[in-house]
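Customer escalation, tier 2.

The customer says the design service returned an amino acid string that "doesn't look like it belongs to this structure." They asked us to rerun it and document both sides in this ticket. The original structure tokens are below, unchanged.
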């Protein structure tokens, strides 16, 4: 009796399965050690709040420690790059946001990572709308009054100063949207640190600024700045007395900051599926959900497919806004 040797094409057909075997085994036992969750902003900021609340519950559900790693700088790009270049094993994850994922690619020609090719969306966690705020001692108490001021001081070669939390951020392009819709010229004043921008608004060094509802709610309720309008489709539960831009007849001023969970491209599908299930479960935890809502966030928790669809729709939208503004970060 003779033993037939496998033909070459039979051997070749086995290679993909053999190559995937280690990944499949890894996915079944993941996580076997602490998981690192990176965020591109310092402690105490909106992204950090989301990361710590979600990370704490995620650790409980995964039965493994989730270590928060604040890699602040460059509008979230440092953290995004670090995860994009990490091994695709599920142990280095990112809380990414609209600035470093959707705005940065068209705004920076030398971006050291490619979100579309090097990162995969796991779940959109929360969103935070923006609110137009002004100093409490400003001479305009309503948006109509602000618009009169802006048109009087932002035409004929003059510009109105609006603070931003950095060039290329949502608030930066929100300022451009506002100027176009309101018919005046704007001079974005870019601050490197969130605290510096807030200080400038409170001190009356700028005319106005777009801040996230999550950041602005406490400052507004504390009487440190005045809110004129929000970018949300409906009034914010944490700022129910503040009208939306749509109510004021400017529906095109419609943008928000989203925060999503990302993993390096190539991470095993089984790991991504488990991550999605546990991230959604973390957001549905009553205590976690309440804390996020009280902080000014809209809690979502989307599927992997819904997250990828969101990312595909956001990319061209922000690319068009960047192009229209003429902004280039490098």
């Amino acid at each position: 009796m003779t033993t037939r040797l496998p033909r070459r094409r039979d051997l070749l057909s086995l290679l993909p399965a053999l190559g995937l075997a280690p990944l499949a085994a890894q996915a079944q036992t993941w996580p076997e050690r602490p998981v690192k969750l990176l965020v591109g902003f310092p402690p105490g900021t909106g992204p950090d709040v989301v990361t710590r609340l979600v990370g704490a519950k995620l650790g409980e559900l995964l039965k493994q420690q989730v270590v928060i790693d604040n890699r602040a700088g460059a509008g979230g790009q440092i953290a995004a790059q670090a995860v994009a270049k990490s091994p695709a094993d599920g142990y280095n994850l990112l809380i990414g946001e609209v600035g470093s994922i959707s705005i940065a690619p068209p705004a920076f020609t030398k971006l050291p990572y490619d979100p579309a090719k090097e990162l995969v969306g796991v779940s959109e966690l929360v969103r935070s709308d923006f609110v137009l705020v002004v100093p409490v001692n400003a001479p305009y108490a309503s948006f109509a009054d602000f618009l009169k001021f802006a048109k009087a001081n932002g035409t004929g070669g003059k510009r109105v100063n609006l603070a931003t939390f950095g060039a290329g951020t949502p608030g930066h392009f929100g300022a451009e949207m506002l100027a176009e819709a309101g018919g005046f010229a704007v001079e974005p004043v870019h601050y490197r640190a969130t605290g510096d921008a807030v200080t400038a608004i409170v001190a009356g060094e700028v005319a106005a600024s777009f801040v996230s509802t999550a950041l602005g709610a406490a400052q507004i309720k504390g009487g440190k700045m005045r809110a004129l309008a929000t970018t949300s489709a409906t009034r914010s539960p944490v700022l129910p007395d503040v009208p939306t831009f749509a109510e004021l007849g400017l529906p095109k001023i419609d943008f928000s900051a989203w925060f999503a969970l990302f993993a390096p491209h190539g991470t095993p599908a089984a790991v991504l599926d488990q991550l999605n299930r546990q991230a959604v479960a973390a957001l549905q935890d009553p205590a976690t959900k309440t804390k996020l809502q009280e902080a000014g966030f809209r809690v979502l928790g989307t599927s992997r497919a819904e997250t990828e669809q969101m990312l595909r729709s956001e990319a061209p939208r922000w690319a068009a806004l960047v192009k229209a503004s003429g902004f280039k970060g490098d």
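Tier 2 assessment: The sequence is consistent with the input. The longest strand covers residues 119-135. The chain has two domains: 32-128+257-325, 129-230. Sent an explanation to the customer and offered a walkthrough call.
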